[in-house]
Every structure is written in structure tokens, then in C-alpha cells.
Amino acid sequence: MALLKLENVTKRFGGLVAVDKISLEIKEGELIGIVGPNGSGKTTLFNVISGVYTPEEGKVIFDGKDITRLPAYKRAPLGLGRTFQIPRPFSSASVRENVAIGAMFGTLADKVSVDDSLDIADRYIDMVGLEAHRDKASGTLTPVEKKLMEIARALAMRPKLLLMDEAMAGMNPKDIDDMVKFIKRIKEEEKIAIVSMVEHIMRAVAGLAERVMVMNQGMKLVDAKTEEALSDPRVIEVYLGHPPDESKWRSEVWKEVKKKDE
Amino acid sequence: MIFTLLAGNLTHGLLLGGVYGLATMGLSLIFGVINVVNVGHGQFIMVGAFVTLTMFTALGLSPVIALPAALIIGMALGFFFFYTVIRRLIKAPELTSLLATFAMGILLEEIAKLIFGADFRGYNWGLGKITLPITTIPMSKVYAFIGSVVIAFFLYFWFSKTRLGTAIRSVMEDSEGARVCGVNVGWIYALSFAIGIGLTVMSGVLLTMFIPVGINPYMGGVYTLKAFVIAVLGGLTSPYGAFFAGLIFGLIENGAYTLFAMIPGVAPFPLTVSLAFWMLFFLLLVKPTGLLGK
Amino acid sequence: MKKTISKYYPLIPVFAAYLIMFIIGFFMPGMWQMVALLAFYCALGQSWNIFMGMTGYVDFGYVTFIALGTYGMSLGITYFAQYEWLGIGIIGIGIIFAMFLASLSALLEAFIALRLRGAYFAIACIGINEGLRYFIEGAKIWGGSEGLIYFGALVQALGRGTVNQLTTFWADFSVFIIAALAAFLNMHYMRSKIGYALTAVREDEDAAKVMGINANKYKTIAFLTSGWLGAGVGAMAWGLKLGYVYPGDVFVIHYTIECIVVVLLGGAGTLMGPVIGGLIYGLSKYWLAVIMPGFQLLIFAPIIIIIIVIAPEGVVGLLKSKLKGTKLEMFIE
User: Fold this and answer.
1) Does A127 share its domain with A71?
2) pLDDT of residue B293
3) Which residues of chain A are within 8 Å of residue C324 when distances are taken between CB atoms?
4) Which of A99, A181, B215, C104 ranks highest by number of CB atoms within 10 Å?
């Protein structure tokens, strides 16, 4: 059974159709990527899934429940977690308090006390490697540290599905590789499904995701296994602006992908 | 009979609305340019009222002369408060400028109380009335309305045609962009604040032309509330919207007064004041960003 | 267990301060009036702190709660004093009315908070205050602009002796209790999920919602708590003690400023802050009232401005940063 099911989700802003009849299924424990150029509607789609927006048409079904019109704050306890492209820490609170907030209002909301949440927070802070900053005010962290804290906070919610919005934006190649390893590890240890969304950092998806959905102008272009999706000529055309010269692009794309496996 | 009464009151309301509108323009200007809400707004109106009172009773000068005096005093106060207080708070969280302008208003009240005492004062300009087909209006009120319209028009031209006015508009739109174009944003902030306060103090003069009684240090509070309702009605950042919203508010207020006066067992004046709150509440339900604003 | 108790250490200096105040007032002749005044300001500051310190919303019309509390008590006494069998119960009824009216106002403000923030919200709250005041006067309910005088009815119902005791001691003592309760609730909320939720909402409401926080629920809890406490102060310190009420006397914005001064002086969002602020302000007001009556605000208005510009964290805030990393830190909150 699918953990998350989108049925013909459409979101309009006035005359602009940001998300156009998107259908998608994600199973428990799957790791998929959503890819698309700037303006393709990826962030809007995430916002619809996490409840910031309500779609005009279509349904969002999570764990068997229709959450299309459910307020955002009710989705977290169901197991839907999210990180933001630009981290949104609760600046005056410490790292520990931030992550604990994740635990307090997530899937464990009614079962954990404040003290329990702080203990849970410690575990995830260690996992992302921020032990040294535990009691610092989160507003003082570096951007990468803030990203790591976002992830720890989202994990503390013990979600079933984690939406990661451009988790690797602004990182250098080494950090990206570390992050890829880290995300794989999260998926294994926490046994959660992950949706990783990226615009152009293909490394974040190639070698990480089993499946990729490519979006363009609000519509689903391709939904297939990673290799297939990324080498699909339509996808390349969307990024390059023109259809590829077949022999040439094959080697360029595959060079990137092959590098990952080495 | 009721029709004449209503028509009379509505005309009255429209005229008063002009004064309200002008008063609120100052508020909108300051908020539009510096993003500071002047919670002490009503107290500056009170300053204008006392300026008029003093000039009339002590110096025998007509309120018309009080207008430019009020402008000068208002701008002086504006510059003073800007450079001592406001300037440091522009980058601070909203709360601090709210509290600071609130405290400024209280300070003005207490100083006024110190100088003039807490009694209610008034004056009588005695210009006589003008008779229109439907109603009779005291001349002073007509002057007040003319005054507010003239000033509003003047502002309109000044904003659109002069360099300084355009500079202010540019900062309202985008202060960074204006800075890059060579506009001295810091000076524009100060100037806008000063002009905003100047407008507010002037409207106090016009207000007394309309209502020459009840002048006391604590009269300002109610006008802050009304100004806020008008600003929300017209869009908190749009000075022009504020003027027209003021007219509408004046109409509604006086229409309501006429209605309330017909109900037995209620005191129409306080009830009308309370109306401002209910209007605000209704507006918040319907459109919090203002009917004419963004 | 130890962990849980140590959470509450910061309450110790607060309760100690209140205890000392009480002892001074009770045992030293002539000091009760002054101590009662100090307790009044501490209680108000502590109650307002829950509202502003925790939610970040500024309620310029906070005095509405105090006024409604006064009216609640007044209405209770006015209408129920005739039932002599109720005895002291009419005070209880007064409190219930006070809480009820305060709840209405708190819920109204929570509703407004749904749509407005920052400056808009602050001024809308002034609107509630002015609107209620003039509505009472205009619609001539609850005695209209002349208000209610029920001192006589109270004496008739309870006897002069009891009433004397109530107005000279028990009313003020209740204010102490409210102050202590407010401090306790403040601490309790800060350490519980409510506090964490409100911190998150204050910093970034949309992110908080995505984390699973029902922002409105927690804001409402804070508003209600703060409103009840404020109403309690009004009911006791004004309603019960004075024996009369009229709109122009209670719906006065100046009391909100006094709350602000108290909290700013001591440090907003801290526990000890309102106590220190209450002491400083109360003492100054008392002293000034003797020397130059009616001038307190003239002096305090510029002081608020100076504090805002120079030291927005107040006395306790400054103390907190000085004591960071030391053993004493756990006593300061």
C-alpha cells in the first residue's frame, strides 16, 4: 500500500497553474527524488503535501487518510516531516530545544514529556554531529549547521515520510557526498521514506534515489527509475533548452553518474 | 424632517471626514516610508488643538494662522523625536517602536497636563453659518474641510511633481533600490516622519475648527483609534487611500449618530465612538489588509 | 525527580521576595498600603508577562482585563448582595463573573490574533478597550457612565466588620496570591510543551505549524491565563476594595503603560523581571505621589523610551547575560 498518494493534484495561483494534475505514489521506506528546473512547481508541490497550501483539485492521501484539507499542524503527528530549503530555526532557542520541539509535536506527541523530548533530541543531535553546539542559540549556527539541525529536528518527529527540500543547496561537493551518505544512513536506520527534492544538483539524486520524478512547468514529465529518468532526452531538453545530440549527451550524463559509484 | 436631519448630519460627516482623512494621511505616510506605526498619533492631534487654542485665546490669532504654525511645530517635533528616538529603532523589532511611540504620546499628554491642566477647554471662532438647500453649516466647519482638501491636494502634487516628493515615494516602494539610485534614505526617513507629524498636528488645528470644545490633554486617545480604523479601511500604506477612507468614515460615523440619537435610552455620542471599534472588528473579519490597500 | 524540581528553582527568589514584602507589610505598622501597591504592580507585571513574554504579542489594551475583572466583581456584588444567605459567597460569584468576562475578551483577542500581528494587533486591542468603554457608556448598561456603587450593599450583606477586614486586608492579600500564582504559571508554562510551542510560534509561526504545533490553541491558552490573572487583580484590588466602578475610571490605557514599564524595567519574558520592575516602579510611584503627586507618568514616559532605546532587556536581562555560565544562573530566569 502506498504511504503517500497524490491523485491529480492541481494548485493554481490566480491564472498561473503551479502544479498541474500531478499523481505520484510513494511506498514505505522508499527513497525517491523530485527533480525539475526553477519554476517547475516542486516547492509548491511540497507545500501542498505539508499543508501550507490547499490544492484546487485532486487529493493527497497519507497512510490511508485523505489529508487534502487537513491543517498543516495536524499532519506532523501523522508522520509527515519536512525540512526547508532555507533553514528555519527557532533562533532564540538552543539547538537542543529546537530539536526537542520536533519530538514534542511529532508522531510521539502524546507519549513523550518535555524531558523525554530533550533526551530524544540529544540522540539526533549526535547523529548529525552537532553535539558541540547543543546549547548554543540556533540563530548563531552556520548555514550548513542550520541545515543539519533542520534534519535532526525533522527526524526527532519520528516521521514516516520526510520531505527534504533542496537539502544540499549551497554545499560544496565534499559536503554533498557526505550528505548523500548520511541520507542513505537515515533511510536505513530510521526506516522512513524520503523524498529528496533538487533543482540541479544531480548528485543529490543519482546514486541516492531509487526512483525519480521529473517536473516541468507544473506537470510530471517523467516518473521512472533514476538512470532511466535522468537520461531521458525530454529531461535533458528541459535543462539544456534543446534536444541533446545523442552520442554526446550520453557520455556527459553518464560520466556524472559513474563518478558517484566509484 | 428626518431627511433634512440625516442630510445635515451626513454633510457634517463628510466635512469632518476630510479632517479625519488628513489626520490619517500622516499616519500612513510614516508607516509607508519608515514602517513605524505611530501609536502616539492622537496625542499629536491634541498638540495641534492646544496650539490653536493658545494662539486664539492668548494671541487673538485666527486658526487659519495656526495652520502654518502647527506645521512648523509639528515638523520640529517630528525631527526631534526622529533623531532622538525613532532613528535607533528602525531596525529593531516592531514591538520596540510601538512601545516607544506609545510612550511618546503619553509624554505629550503629561506635558500638556503640566502646562494647561486637565480641564476641558474650548474657544468660539464665531464666524456664523452658511445656509445650503438642505442644511445649515457653521462657516468654521466649511473652512476646516476646505483646509483639509487644499492640503491634501497640495500633498498630491508635491508627491508626484517634485524631486523630493518623488524621492519619498521611491523610498516607500523600495528603500534599497532608492539608496542605490542616490537617494539619501536616512534624510528621507527623517523628513517623512517630520512631514507625517506635521500633517497630524495640522489636522488637530482643523479638528478644533470643527469641534472647538472638549480640548484637553487626554483627548487624543480616541482619535488614534479612529485613525487606525481609517487607515485599515484605506490601506495602511496608502496616504491617498487614507484620505478617501476618512471621508467614508466621517459619513458612517455621523449617519450612525443620527440613527443612535433616535433610539431611546442610549447615549448616542459614546455609542458612536464605540462604533469605531465595531467597524474595526468588522473590517478585520472581512479584509484585514484594508479595502483599498494591498 | 531531582531534575523536575530543579526546574522550579528560579521561583525561589520570586517567592522569597513576595514573602519578605508580606512580612514587612504585615508586621511593620503603616507599611501595608505601600506593600499592597508593590504587590499590585508585581502581579500585573507578572500577568502581562505571560501574554507578551510568551506569545510575543503586545496587547496595548491589556487594561480591559483588569476593567472587566472589576466589573465582574461589581456586578456580582450589586446583583447578589440582596441574597443574604449567600454570605461571603457573593465574592465567589464576583470572581466567577470576572473570569467569565475576561474569557470573552481573551477569546476575542485570540480571534483577532488569527488575522493580525504586531502593530495591527496592538492597536486593535486598544480598540477593544475603547470600544467596550464607550459601549457601556453608550448603551447605558452596567450603570452606564455613572457606573455602580455597591459599597453600601456589601456592608448590608456582610456586616461592617467583615467588609472592613476584606477591604483592608484580604483584598490585598489576594493580590499577593495572584502574583505568586502568576509567577508559578509563568514558570510552569515556560518549562512545559506550552512554552516550547509558544517559543516556536513566536519565532516562526509557519515553521511551527509544519512541526505539528497548533498555534491558535497555544496562543489562546496564554491569552486566557493572562486575562484571568489580570481580571483577578482587578476584581480584588479594585472591585472588592473600592466598592464602586465606572467606565472612565477603569478602562484607562495608562494602566497598560504601567504594566509595560514594570515589565520593561525588569526584563520582558523573564520570571524575576516583573518583580524587580514592580518593586522599582511601585516604590517610585509611592515616593513620587508623596512628593509630586500626579507626575509619575511625566517622569516615567521618557524613562520607558530611554530603556527601550538603550537597554531593551531590562535589569534581569542584563543580569542574565552577566551570570551566564555560573552556578547562580539556575536561580535567574
Assistant:
1) no
2) 42
3) none
4) A99
| Residues in C touching B114 (Cβ below 8 Å) | 295, 298
Whether residue C316 lies within 8 A of chain B, CB to CB, comes out as no
Q: What is the 3-state secondary structure (H, E, C) of A67-116?
A: CCCCCHHHHHHHCEEEECCCCCCCCCCEHHHHHHHHHHHCCCCCCCCHHH
pLDDT of C235: 93
At C271 the pLDDT is 84
| B2-286 placed in CATH 1.10.3470 | yes
User: Which residue in C188, C194, C196, C204 has the most chain A C-beta atoms within 10 A of its own C-beta, making it the best mutation to test that interface?
Assistant: C196
Instruction: Label residue A259 by pLDDT band (50, 70, 90).
Output: low
What's the domain count of chain A?
2
User: Residue A91 and residue B200: Cα distance in Å, rounded?
Assistant: 38
Higher-pLDDT residue of C237 and B64 is C237
Q: Are residues A75 and A182 in the same domain?
A: yes
Contact A177, A203 (CB under 8 A): yes
Interface test with C, best of A49, A62, A73 (most C CBs within 10 A): A73
Confidence of residue C329 (pLDDT cuts 50, 70, 90): low
- pTM over cut 0.80: yes
Res A69: pLDDT: 92
Q: Domain range for residue A113?
A: 91-157
Within a domain: A255: no
Q: What percent of chain A shows pLDDT beyond 90? A: 35
pLDDT tens sequence across A33-73:
888 887 888 889 999 999 989 999 999 999 989 999 999 99
pLDDT digits (tens, 9 = 90+) for B10-54: 888 888 898 999 989 998 889 888 888 888 999 999 999 999 988
Are B85 and C305 a contacting pair at CB < 8 A? Answer: yes
Chain A residues in contact with C207 (beta carbon < 8 A): 84, 88, 90
Question: For the domain C2-331, what is the CATH code?
Answer: 1.10.3470
**Which positions in chain B touch C308 (Cβ < 8 Å)?**
89, 96, 99-100, 103
Q: What are the C-alpha distances in Å from C143 to residues A163, C137, C149, C244? A: 60, 8, 9, 11
A180 lies in the same domain as A200: yes
Q: Do A215 and A112 fall within a single domain?
A: no
Question: Distance, in angstroms, between B198 CA and closest chain C CA?
Answer: 21
Cell (9 digits) for C136: 457601556
The pLDDT assigned to B239 comes to 76
Model pLDDT, residue C85: 78
Which residues lie closer than 8 Å to B264 by C-beta, 6 or more apart?
none
Whether ipTM tops 0.90, in short, is no
The pLDDT of C201-214, averaged and rounded, is: 92
Based on its alpha-carbon atoms, the radius of gyration of chain B, rounded to whole angstroms, reads 19
**In a 3-state reduction of DSSP, which class is residue A4?**
strand
- What's the DSSP call for residue B122? -
Q: Does C105 score more than 50 pLDDT?
A: yes
DSSP A241: S
Contact list in C for residue A77 (CB cut-off 8 A) is 212
Same domain, A136 and A109: yes
- Is residue A258 situated within a structural domain? no
Asked if residue A184 and residue A113 are part of one domain, the reply reads no
Helices and strands (DSSP H and E) totals, chain C: 18, 2
Q: Is any Cβ of chain C less than 8 angstroms from the Cβ of B267? A: yes
Closest residue of A to C4, CA-based? Answer: A115
Whether residues C135 and B89 touch (CB distance < 8 A) is answered with no
Contact C211 A97 (CB under 8 A): no
Which range has the worst mean pLDDT, A113-127, B252-266, C190-204? B252-266
List of chains touching A (3+ CB pairs within 8 A): C
User: DSSP of A139-199, one letter per residue?
Assistant: GGS-HHHHHHHHHHHHHHT--SEEEEESTTTT--HHHHHHHHHHHHHHHHHH--EEEEEES
Residue A20 DSSP SS3 = strand
Which sequence spans correspond to the domains of chain C? Answer: 2-331
